[in-house]
Amino acid sequence: MRVMGSISWVGILLLSLALLSSCLAVEVSYDANALIINGERRIIFSGAVHYPRSTVEMWPDIMQKAKDGGLDAIETYIFWDRHEPVRREYNFTGNLDFVKFFKLMQEAGLYGILRIGPYVCAEWNYGGFPLWLHNMPGIDLRTDNPVYKNEMQIFTTKIVNMAKEANLFASQGGPIILAQIENEYGDIMWGYGAAGESYLKWCAQMALAQNIGVPWIMCQQNNAPAPMINTCNGYYCDWFKPNSPTSPKMFTENWIGWFQKWGERVPHRSAEDSALSVARFIQTGGVLNNYYMYHGGTNFGRTAGGPYITTSYSYDAPIDEYGNLNQPKWGHLKQLHAAIKLGEKILTNGTRTDTDFGNSVTLTTYTDATGARFCFISNMDEGKDANIDLKNDGHYFVPAWSVTILDGCNKEVFNTARVNSQTSVMVKRSDDASAKLTWAWIVEKKKDTLNGRGSVKAHSLLEQKELTMDASDYLWYMTSVDINDTSVWSNATLQVNTEGHTLHAFVNKRYAGYQHSQWGNNFTYEKEVSLKNGTNIITLLSATVGLPNYGIGFHKIKTGIAGGPVKLIGSNNVEIDLSANQWSYKVGLNGERKRIYDLHPHAGVSWRTNGSYPVGKPLTWYKAEFKAPSGSNPVVVDLQGLGKGHAWVNGHSIGRYWPSWLIGTNGCSDWCDYRGRYKKEKCNTGCGEPSQRWYHVPRSFLNNDKNTLILFEEVGGNPQNVSFQTVTAGTICANVYEGQTLELACQGGQVISQIQFASFGNPQGQCGSFKKGNWEATNSQSVVEANCLGKKSCGFTVNKEAFGVTMSPMQVNNGVATLAVQAAC
User: What is the pLDDT, as a whole number, of residue 320?
Assistant: First the structure.
C-alpha cells in the first residue's frame, strides 16, 4: 500500500466519504407547529406503501404517482416474518429489499418514514411476527419478557444497522425523517398491567440507544415517554393533542378506507370525507398526515392475516391494488394537498384563532408576523349547508360536512365536498390470452394420511400453528378406533370441535365432507359417517386462512383441533371420545412437498391430460398454460367458478382464493352519502358477488411467451371459466365547478374515443347517469369534443368564456355553474 505521510489512501478516502456524508446530512427537528427539515418548517403529506405487497418493478411507478399526487413522503412497516422466517436466517431479496425501496423513494424526491414495530398488525399474518417466536421456551410477546425483548432488540438493531450502512437516515443524507418503535400498543397495554408499562419504557430506551439521528414516534400511545412523539391513528384525528406541548400533532394512520374479509362487503370511503378528515386535521394544527393506505397492494402467498383477510388489500386507497389511480380520490386529494401547501409557511409560522359561527361552523385564521393570513371554514353539520359572510373577505357557501380553504382568507381555493377531479370507471378486458384454457390435473396424493401415517404422534390433540410453524396452511390429524357393533355405529355422526378455520374429514379413506367457520373462529364440524366392524381410520385435514394479527394476546389464540373434543356419536346418543387417542400428525400437503406449483417441481410429478378433468373434486391440483395479455395494463386472473384454494403463476404465489364465498345480498348501494362520520359499514358494494373474483398477476411475474397457472383447489370447483384479463379505465367522467380545470385522461396509451355526455350549466346525476338540468350552454358537446376527442388526455379551464355564454347566477346552483362530462376510452 502506498502511504502519503502517515495517512493511507484508504484513510483519505474514508475521511472524504465521512466529510461528504456530513455535508449531505439533513437535520430533522420539530416544535408544536411544524416538522423542521434543514431549517425549513414543513407540513408533510405521506402515504403508506408496503414493499412486500407489490413488486420491485411496480415501486418506481407507485412512487412517481405518489409524488404527482402531492405527497412528500412514503411510509412502510418492516415485516419481521418475511425477513427472518427461520431464526437467524435472513431474507432481504426481491420485494423484501427495503433498502432499495427507500433508495427509490429518495430518487423520486420523497422522504421516508420507517415503522420498525416490529409488531405491525397491518392485517398481516400473525401481526408480522415469525412463528418461531411462538415456540421459544418462556416467551410472551409484547410485554416485559426477557426472551421476547432480546429477540426484538436483535431484529430492530439489525434493521437499523442495515439502514445506517446504506446511509438511509436523514442524518446521513438519506430519506428517512422519522422512525417508529412498537405499534398501537396503547390500545392494548392495559391488558398487560405493570409489565406493559415497563415494556413500553424499555422500548423507548432501546430505540433511543440506536442513535439514528431522527425523531422516534409511537402511535396510539398517549403515555409515550419523552422524547418519543405520540401520534394518532383513525378516521379522524382533529381532536388529538400530543402529550407534550412541544410535540407536533401527527396523524400516522388516516384510514383512507378499510380492509375486506372473505364473506364481507367491499368497503369504500368517499373522496369528500377523506379530504374533510385531512383538512380538519390541518385546520386544528396538524403537521403530518399519513394515509393508510396510499397503495394497498396484494397479500401474496399466505401473508394475509385476520383470519379471513382477502388476498386483495386494496383498502380503497388512492392508488389501487394494481397500481392504477383510484379516481376521483387520488385527484381530489392531490388538489387538497396543493391548496394546503399554499399556506404552509403561514400555517407553520403563524398564530391561530378560531371563530365559532354556531351550527357546527368554525372559522380558523392563521396569521404570521407579516400579517399574511390563511383560513379554513369547517361546517361539521351532517345535513345543513352554511352561508358564511366574512364581510370584506367575501361570502362563502360551505356545504354540510365540508371544509373550505381560503388563501389569504379571501379566496376560496378548495372545498372538500366539491370534487372536480376525474372519476374513472375501471373495467376488465380480454384478448387472445382469455381463450379457453386447457387443463391438466393431479389429485392430491393421500395414501399416507388416509392410512393414518404421520411424522409426529401424541396422545392428545395438538395446536396447529405449533406444529406447522407456518410452513403450510394444512395439518393432518389421524387416529383409529375399533368398532364391534355396527348396529350402533353404522350410521354415526363424527363431531369435531375445532378452533377453525376449515375442516375436511375422511373415514376409512372415504371423503365425509367439508365445513368452515363463518367468522374464522371455533366451530363444530358434524358429518354422518359409516363405520365398519374392526379398525376404522379417521383422517382430518385442518386448514387455516390467515393467523390472527391484533388484540391482547392474539398470538395465544389457538388454531386447528386444539384439544377437541373429537367424538363419534352413535344411535341412542352413545358416544366415543377420541380426544385422548393416539393421534398421528403430518404438516402440509404432498403437493406442497413436491413443489407442484414450481415451474420445475420435484421428481415424481406427473400431470394427467387424458380424458375430462375432474370437477367438484376436493384437494385437486390444476395446471394450464397461457399467453400474457398484450399491452401494459395490469393483469388479473378471473377465478370465478372455483371454490377455495391457492394460485401460482410461473411459480409466484398470487395468494389464496375463495370465490365460492358470496357476499350477502343486503347493505350495498351504488350511491354514497359522504356526509357524517365514516365507519366501515358505510358505502359498501359487492352484495351477492364473490368476496374476491379477480386476482392480481403482476406483469413482472409473466413471460412474453409461455406462462403457467397452477391452482390448488381445496373444496372442489370448476376451472372452465378461468381467464386472464387486463384492468383499465373504460368510462371516465368529471363534474367540474366553474373556475376549476377539467382534466380527463385515459390510460395504457388509449385515447378518448367518444364524448358520451357533456353539459355546462346545472347538470344532474353522477357518472353513468348524468342528465341535463333546466339550463345549459348549447355548444357544451362540441366544445368538449374539440378539446378532448382523440386525445390521451385533455384539459381546459371551465368558465363562461370557454363556452361563449353569459348567465345569471340564479340559473345555476349557488351561483356556480358546473360542467359534467362522460367519455369513453
Answer: 98
Q: Which residues contact 140 (CB under 8 A, 6 or more apart)?
A: 147, 148
- From 84, 253, 444, 738, active-site residue: 253
| Helix axes 98-107 and 59-68, enclosed angle (nearest 10) | 40
β-pairing, 44-49 with 73-77?
parallel
Q: For cell 386444539, name the residue.
A: 562
**What cell numbers appear for 211 in the block?**
442513535
Q: What is the mean pLDDT of residues 158-166?
A: 98
Q: How confident is the model at residue 433 (pLDDT cuts 50, 70, 90)?
A: low
Q: What is the mean pLDDT of the chain?
A: 95
Q: How confident is the model at residue 808 (pLDDT cuts 50, 70, 90)?
A: low
CA distance 532 to 341: 78
Q: What is the pLDDT of residue 5?
A: 43
Q: Angle between the 193-208 and 146-165 helix axes, to the nearest 10 degrees?
A: 20
Q: What's the pLDDT at 195?
A: 98
Helix (H, G, I), strand (E, B) or coil at 197: helix
What's the chain's Rg over C-alpha atoms? 30
Nearest to 403 by CA among 288, 282, 234: 282
Q: Do 822 and 731 contact (CB within 8 A), yes or no?
A: yes
Q: What is the mean pLDDT of residues 319-347?
A: 98
Strand spans (E) along 544-580? 566-569, 575-577
Q: How far apart are CA 721 and CA 766, in angstroms?
A: 33
Q: Cis (ω within 30 of 0) for the bond into 807?
A: no
Cell of 618: 376436493
Reported pTM: 0.95
What is the secondary structure of 625-676 as a DSSP string?
EEEPPSSSS-EEEE-TT--SEEEEETTEEEEEE-TTSBPPSSS--S-----S
Largest CA distance in the chain: 101
Residue 195, burial from CB neighbour count under 10 angstroms (0-12, 13-18, 19+):
middle
Q: Which is the catalytic residue, given 151, 184, 444, 463? A: 184
511: its cell numbers = 371423503
pLDDT tens digit sequence for 247-290: 999 999 999 999 999 999 999 999 999 999 999 999 999 999 99
Please answer whether residues 51 and 96 qualify as being in contact, where contact means their C-beta atoms are separated by less than 8 angstroms: yes
**14 pLDDT above the threshold of 60:** no
The reply to whether 526 belongs to the active site is: no
In the predicted model, is pLDDT for residue 431 greater than 90?
no
Residue environment code for 688-710, b if the CB has 16+ CB neighbours within 10 A, otherwise e: ebbbbbbbbbbbebbeeeebbbb
Are 251 and 673 a contacting pair, CB within 8 Å? no
Torsion of CA 595, 601, 602, 604, to 10 degrees: 110
Residue position matching grid coordinates 388563501? 407
Q: Left, alpha or beta for 518 (phi > 0: left; psi -120 to 50: alpha)?
A: alpha
Residue 145 has pLDDT above 90, yes or no: yes
What pairs with residue 45 in β-bridges? 289
- 184 catalytic residue (yes or no): yes
Q: How many CB atoms lie within 10 A of CB 590?
A: 17
Tell me the mean pLDDT in the region 733-754.
93
- CA 26 remoteness from chain centre: 31
Q: Are 529 and 494 in contact (CB under 8 A)?
A: yes
Summarize the confidence of residues 205-233 as an average pLDDT: 98
- From 656, 651, 654, 657, select the one nearest 595 (Cα to Cα): 651
Average pLDDT, stretch 93-116? 98
Q: Is the pLDDT of residue 650 over 60?
A: yes
What is d(CA 667, CA 684) in angstroms, rounded to the nearest whole number? 7
Share of the chain above pLDDT 70, in %: 96
List, in order of start, the domains of the chain with CATH numbers: 3-326 (3.20.20.80), 427-442+593-726 (2.60.120), 445-588 (2.60.120.260), 738-824 (2.60.120.740)
Going edge to edge, which strands form the sheet with 706-713? 439-443, 620-627, 706-713, 645-649, 652-657
